[in-house]
Amino acid sequence: HLGYFFGFRKQAYEHPVRTNQIPRQVPDQLWYMNPF
After folding, report:
1. SS3 of 3, please?
2. Where on the phi/psi map is residue 28: left (φ > 0), alpha (ψ -120 to 50), or beta?
3. What is the pLDDT of residues 1-36, one digit of tens each?
4. Name one Pfam family in it (predicted).
5. What's the confidence (pLDDT) of residue 3?
6. What's CA 2's distance to the chain center, in Å?
């Protein structure tokens, strides 16, 4: 119960790395890479 109490009061966890804000183009998958 004590761990829940302290964990609930803590700030939300922030990831130490920053994500890139520029979206990257996802290349089209080739026909033989598709399982269907």
Report:
1. helix
2. beta
3. 677 766 666 666 666 777 777 777 877 777 676 666
4. EMP70
5. 73
6. 29
Question: How is residue 19 written in tokens?
Answer: 């994500």
Residue 23 structure tokens:
């979206």
Task: State the Cα–Cα distance between residues 2 and 8, nearest whole angstrom.
Answer: 10
Q: CA–CA distance from 21 to each of 14, 17, 24, 32 (Å)?
A: 16, 12, 9, 31
Give the tokens for residue 8.
């609930």
- Cα–Cα distance, 1 to 6 (Å, whole number): 9
- Calpha distance 36→30 (Å, rounded): 12
